[in-house]
Amino acid sequence: MPRNRPNPSALRYLWQERRTSTLSIDQSGVWRFRDLLPIVSNEQIVTLREGNTPLYEMPKCAKSLGMNWLLAKHQGMNPTGSFKDTGMTAALSAAVSSGYEWVACASTGNTSAAMAAYAARAGLKSLVLIPEGKIAWGKLSQAMDYGSMTLQLKTDFDGCVKVLTEVVQRAPVYLLNSVNPYRLEGQKTPAFEMLEQMEWQVPHHVIVPGGNLANCSALGKGFAEMKHLGFIHRVPKISIIQAEGANPLYRWLNSGGVGPLEPVTADTRATAIRIGNPASWKKAARVLASTGGWCEQVTEQEFALAKAEIGAEGIGCEPASAVTLAGLKKLIADGRVGQEETAVLLLTGHTLKDPEFTIKYHLGELLTEAEERGATPAERARTAQLRRQPLVMDANVDDVLRALEAVSAVQTA
Ligand code: F0G
Prior knowledge:
Layout: H1 8-18, H2 24-27, E1 55-57, H3 59-65, E2 70-74, H4 84-97, E3 102-106, H5 110-122, E4 125-131, H6 137-145, E5 149-153, H7 157-170, E6 173-175, H8 181-187, H9 189-197, E7 205-209, H10 215-228, E8 237-243, H11 248-254, H12 281-291, E9 295-298, H13 300-311, H14 319-333, E10 343-347, H15 355-363, H16 369-373, H17 377-386, H18 397-412
Parallel strand pairs: 2-10, 3-4, 3-6, 4-5, 7-8, 7-10, 8-9
Antiparallel strand pairs: 1-2
Helix pairs in contact: 4-5, 4-8, 5-6, 8-10, 9-10, 10-12, 13-14, 13-17
């Protein structure tokens, strides 16, 4: 937080002005807000020009929800394809200014991709601990491409965190998991950016996926600072959506929200949020309480369908991001979100992070028969409309034209 109370209109002007500058720290969608970030000397800032991500309208999804409009802030449009870059630029800059040689994280894939990239830019060495076989290929390939030392441990994410917690006590390695306070500082800036993109009109709801529960906390901090400093007069309700198979916060709240959170053994195809023992659950619970938002859970088939719907907008996202739309459907269905209200989905990762999930979904190979049967008739009909199976055929013009005619006939029927 700044030492002198800043003038909101002067800052709003300055932040916009910086977008026209050629300086890398001005072009960064994190560091152009540096007036509200912890001080790091400008020379030590490690940036890949993160942030400045688009806020898209989602007209088809809005229509099917009966809403006037729905927006998506696409954090997957960051340099390494996920929201982690906004926090990593801040944390890596802090690592450089503290003189560390090694940085490390445990990850479900996106943190490791981001850390690897920023460490490479900074000339630091990086150590990645990931659960073996439980992260999407796109993310693993990034850690390798950016030159990290990548260890695939025979455990889950929570097991990797446990190991790393001891490693950093025994070796001079800077911990870059989301408990790192600088990461939260960087990850609060999308809240500023969202408000700027909405011309300082506050949306009623912001819907965020929940895994380790740091992102919702960071956004909550961002909006709270904006209110405290007089940029806005109220904050949006922040709601957190978990996958049913990785739902410790949902369970805790539904069993009364008292006492310690009971970890679960997490299992979901949304590997990014396959987390049973979230580090930042207390902060997340405070954000829910202070903004008036909710925690919901969604099934595998619900977020798989939601992902296809986001894809059909020409936007796309990774499975963990799609829980936001699936969760919003539930919040609308029981009136917690009004159809006339404004909601922003936080899309956290790019669709190319996990193409295997998408391909399996469209081939009809993702879900089990029992899961498919669990869908409502409306969901089944929607899935049938959205599924696109690639056809294999001879390289023959007539065959291609026949296929085109067959599709047109179905679509006009
Ligand atoms: N969405 C994506 C795409 C993620 O990668 C993550 C977390 C989340 C949502 C959840 O955010 O943990 O702050 O609640 N990924 C971490 C990782 C854990 O290691 O990449 P959260």
